Amino acid sequence: MKLLKRIAAFTLVELLVVISIIAILASLALPSITGAIVKAQMGQALSNARQIHTSVITAVGDAASTGATNFGWPGDVLAMQSIQNFADMLITNDFLKPQDVAKVFTCAGMKSIIATTNSATLAGDSCAFNIYKVSDSDPGVSVFITTQNLGTFGQALTTNLPFKENGFVLLRKAGDGAVYKKSQATETNILGVLPAQTTPLTQ
After folding, report:
1. How do the domains of the chain map onto residue ranges?
2. Alpha-carbon distances of 166 from 89, 91, 100, 121, 163, rounded to whole Å
3. Can you tell me the distance from the alpha carbon of 117 to that of 187, in angstroms, rounded to the nearest whole number?
4. Which terminal Cβ of the chain has fewer Cβ within 10 Å, N or C?
5. Quick count: other Cβ atoms within 10 Å of Cβ 119?
6. How do beta strands 168-172 and 120-121 pair?
7. Distance (Å, whole) CA 85 – CA 92
8. Whole-angstrom Cα distance, residue 28 to residue 54?
9. How is 69-98 classified by DSSP, letter by letter?
10. What was the pLDDT predicted at 5?
């Protein structure tokens, strides 16, 4: 009589235990992974803000050398009232291409900015930033760009995109800035000061 070999295999109970352990480990790792992703996205937003700043510095230099009054710091251009005006100024005077505006004025989680060969259309649900009306006479520590979730300077973060209450990005007129923690939103001593025109450009 032939003996049948028993094939080693998981029982249903063992399989359920393994699945449960994997699920527990995944749930413990998820907050860390999510936090790392958000920090990387905030780092990209800071890089985008710096690219906007670089284009404005170029505009300011050109305005100083040519005497032009239709481009420069947003607080020095009389017609500058909205972020759309600001983007149009950079595009019209060839400081940024429309496709560049579509990339650097937004970040992860926001709606895409529509760009054509001549223009880029911004809206509150696509632009990631507040742009303050910094002028040439404002000090270098003046706040120039923040992410929209820092709704009112010096107050707690809002639940707005991008980043909600996870942290925020801030860039000053001098070009220095950082990714900040939620708890630092009210610490104006480290964030800088508002420019003389304290209201940001409208979305």
Report:
1. 15-191
2. 32, 32, 27, 27, 5
3. 42
4. N
5. 15
6. unpaired
7. 10
8. 41
9. SSSSSGGG-TT--BHHHHHHHHHHTTSS-H
10. 62
What's the confidence (pLDDT) of residue 49? 97
DSSP string, 94-130: TSS-HHHHHHHT--TTSPPPEE-SS-EE--TTT--EE
More reliable by pLDDT, 19 or 98: 98
SS3 144: strand
Which phi and psi angles does 98 have, rounded to 5°?
Answer: -55, -40
What six digits make up the tokens of 126?
A: 């696509």
Here the tokens at position 3 are 């003996």
pLDDT by residue (tens digit) across 117-176? Answer: 999 999 878 999 999 999 999 999 999 999 999 999 999 999 988 999 999 999 999 999
70: Cβ–Cβ under 8 A, 6 or more apart, which residues?
Answer: 77, 79, 89, 93
84 vs 76: CA distance, rounded Å: 16
Q: Which amino acid appears at position 69 of this protein?
A: T
pLDDT-above-70 percentage for the chain:
93
